[in-house]
Each structure stands twice: as C-alpha cells, then as structure tokens.
Amino acid sequence: MEKSKPRFIIVTLALLIAFMLMLPNFASKMPEENGPDTSVPPESEHTTQIPNSLTPTVSDVQPTEATTEAATVAIVIGTLQKDTMTGNGIHSQSETPSVSAGENLGGEVGKIAETYKNTVSVFVKDMTDGETFTYNENTAYIWASTLKAPYAYWLYSRALKGELDMEATITLRESDRDNKYIHGAIKDYENGTQFTIETLVEHALRHSDNTAMKMLTRTFGYDGFNEFFKGLGLEFKEKTRGMSSRVYVHELAFCIERIFEFIEEGNEYSGVLKGHMVGTGTQLASFTGEVAKKYGGDPPYWLEMGIVYDKNGPYLYAIMTNGYQARGGPIQKISSAIAAYMKDKTRV
To answer: Can you tell me the mean pLDDT for 231-242?
Structure first.
C-alpha cells in the first residue's frame, strides 16, 4: 500500500492540473447561443481533381509501473496542448495574431476581433481612400461555399476572352448529385438533364447549389483555377482542390478585390456576376443595403466575403471564423462594427 502512494499522488496531481488548464479553454469554446444552429445549413464538398476540359468526363515492450505513470502525465498534458490549437493545430491560442491596419479602422474593428484571438480572421478595405484592416493572416480555414464566387469569376473571365461559351451545356450525372445538404434544386432533376454553364453558375451563387458546383468542377477542374490566380499574382499557400481545401484571409481578400475590379470594368459579364452575388439568398454579416457576397459553412468553419455598396463609397470585407455558430457570433459582431465605423467615418 505504501508503495502505491507516490503513483496515486502523481496521477492525482496530473488530473488536477489538467482540469485547471481545461477551464479557460472550455469557456472560450462555449457556443454563443443555446442549442444547435439550424438556420444556415452547412455546406461542404470533397472533390477529386478532374482534367480541365469543356467536355464533361465520367472521372512489444511492456511498460514498467514508473513509465506508465510518466506516460499518464504526458498524455494528459499533451492532450491539453493539442486542444488549445485552432485550424487543425495551426496556431496556439496564446500566440498574438498578426495585425495590419489603418489606425482608426484597426482601433474600432480590431478591439472586437482581438476578443476572439486566433479563431477569427478579418479583412476590410475602403475602396474610396484605400484604408485597410487585416487581422490574423496566418490561420487557415475551409473554403466551403465561398469558393463558388472566385470560381465563377474565373469562368466569366475565360468567357470574356472567348475561351468558353457560357451557353454550352453540361449533363447531370448521378455522381454530381449532392443530397447531403438542402441547398439548390439541380439535384432534383433527372440524370441526363442538360444545363447551360450560365445556369449552373447562377444556381451555385444565388442558391449555393452544391450539385451545380460539382457539375462545373467536374467539367473544368481546379488546375486552371489555381493557375489563373497565380497569373494574377496570388499563389495559394495550399492548392485548391475543392470546397474542403484550406484558405487564408489574405487569399479571400485578393479574390474579392479581383471580383470587385471585374464588376467595375463594366464588361458584358460584370453585371451578371454582381447580380448573382447581390441576389444570393443567405447573408451572415450584418450589412444592410446592396451587398454582393458569398458565404460558406463547413462546421466549425463559417465565413463570408463581399462588397458593400455604401452611399459614401464601396468597401470590401472577408470574415472567417472557427468554432462558433453561424448566427449571433463573431461574423455579426465584427460586421456590425465595420458598418458603424464606415457610417461615422469622416471622408475628405
């Protein structure tokens, strides 16, 4: 009995330390509303790489008592250290996120963003005077359905160059059908039904239709998408292979700024792309008025990027979160702070 006392004391102390360390981490992950959030169903897609083509394709040492005690302590502490990380272990909560900002915008919006540490990333840019705020550039999130906007922009850019015909058709296959989520009507059509590329883009943007997106990505793949953005000056840290691929806030920022420029060009597809993004059915952010946006959700990730057409001039935003519900969380609080700042901003 006396021999077992040290082991008992060691294990008890380890468990006590574990409990004390878990308290703040547990509190930081408490949901901001009671119960599961069902107001915005999650969206995800796991795709394989398809060739870029217009034509659719059918692609034994036993441990001693002493080592067991040490292992118990190590496992407990190691588990705690892993649990304090976000974005699949990209950053620990104790690290200070990177911040670059205009002094005023950073002061107003940064105070709220900082309360969430490394579980949120934010980008804001006033397109009238160029004032910019970026928070936490080094944490990765999941694209989810936000990918549909830059993907559509890529297709429209190709159409503008005469590389593809938006009225060309793609045939629905059983493998395209996404019955996991409620978004979109394309999944309800019979196999063999043909849709124009334009119709599929419209459904992917306005209704966040995953089946429409799968038909597009089956046909055009992701190699051309990655190369297109590389040619514009953005090489993704991790090549995009589907909506489950990882993305960073500076990458979303680059995409929404290129989309803004495309819309401002006034070309034959500018109004079409803007119309689809303004007309999308779901908006997580708290902005009012005309907003061209695209949200995405693959719990625990919720994110949104867009263009707010404010009466004093447009501004861009991207808000990315990990570990919160879609409604009543940081996206609404941060976007409310952005809107309030832009409303009260003194413009020369």
So the answer is: 97
Average pLDDT over every residue of 218-242: 98
Residue 71: pLDDT band by 50, 70, 90 thresholds? very low
- Whether this model's pTM surpasses 0.70: yes
Q: Which residues contact 208 (CB under 8 A, 6 or more apart)?
A: 43, 145, 148, 183, 184, 280, 281, 282, 294, 295
Q: Where are the alpha helices (DSSP H) in 84-125?
A: 103-114
How many Å apart are CA 165 and CA 161, to the nearest integer? 10
End-to-end CA separation in angstroms for the chain: 81
Q: Is residue 139 part of a domain?
A: yes
Tens of pLDDT, residues 172-214: 999 999 877 777 899 999 999 999 999 999 999 999 999 999 9
Answer yes or no: is 59 within a domain.
no
Work out how many domains the chain is built from and give that number: 1
CATH number at residue 126: 3.40.710.10
Q: Which stretches does DSSP call E strand in the chain?
A: 85-86, 91-92, 99-101, 120-126, 132-135, 141-142, 169-171, 194-196, 246-247, 291-298, 301-308, 315-322
Quote the CA–CA distance of 159 and 246 in Å, as a whole number.
27
* Parallel, antiparallel or unpaired: strands 301-308 and 291-298: antiparallel
Would you call 60 exposed, middle or buried from its count of C-beta atoms within 10 A (0-12, 13-18, 19+)?
exposed
The residue assigned the tokens 């008025």 is: 289
Query: Is residue 201 one of the residues assigned to a domain?
Result: yes
Residue 247 CA to residue 266 CA, distance in Å, equals 29
Mean pLDDT within 125-135: 94
Question: Is the pLDDT higher at 142 or at 7?
Answer: 142
CA distance 139 to 118: 7
- Beta bridge pairs of residue 293: 306
Q: Domain limits at 128?
A: 97-344
Contact 229, 236 (CB under 8 A): yes
**228 inside domain:** yes
267: tokens are 């070309």
